[in-house]
């Protein structure tokens, strides 16, 4: 397994980034590389933005006029990646996460923000490595299964991370 360099930037002020979230993102990127047998050194950029910024990016790059949860910008194609001349690392691309949307989705799905950001990171890393759930239902199924397998290895599987509302739980 090669070395992973994950550059994380916070370009928003709407949501305070919880302690440990950056480490979780690094672990998610590493876990995807291990699962996919990506043995080269690699670099990934992850940026937190607000809904307004991700809306702009979604409209500009995908012609979709609404905010989304995450965008992936791969720098490679068919397993061929740009290489950082100084380090020799494969530059996989950029991940942009709307932390506002991630927070809302965590509440909607009844799990932690960590689970949601972990899912979005794993999802985007798979995109950077060439997976595309929009190609077919089979590809979507394959990608979803890989996402859950990777999250399970990290201990943030769907079953393990649901938030229990104290008012709904009677002992």
> Can you tell me the overall shape?
globular
Number of strands: 6
Taking all Cα atoms into account, the compactness measure Rg is: 16 Å
From the N-terminal CA to the C-terminal CA, the straight-line distance is 46 Å
What would CATH call the architecture? 3-Layer(aba) Sandwich
Query: What is the class in the CATH system?
Result: Alpha Beta
Work out the helix count.
5
Biggest beta-sheet profile: 6 strands, mixed
Please give the share of residues in helix. Answer: 40-55%
> Structural class of the secondary structure composition?
alpha/beta
What does this structure look like?
- The protein has 171 residues and is of the alpha/beta class.
- It has a single domain, classed as Collagenase (Catalytic Domain), CATH 3.40.390.30.
- The chain is built from 5 helices and 6 strands, in the order E-H-E-H-E-E-E-E-H-H-H.
- Strands 1, 2, 3, 4, 5 and 6 form a 6-stranded mixed beta sheet that branches.
- Helix 1 packs parallel to helix 4 and helix 3 crosses helix 4.
- The longest helix is centred in the C-terminal third of the chain and has 17 residues.
- The relative contact order is 0.17.
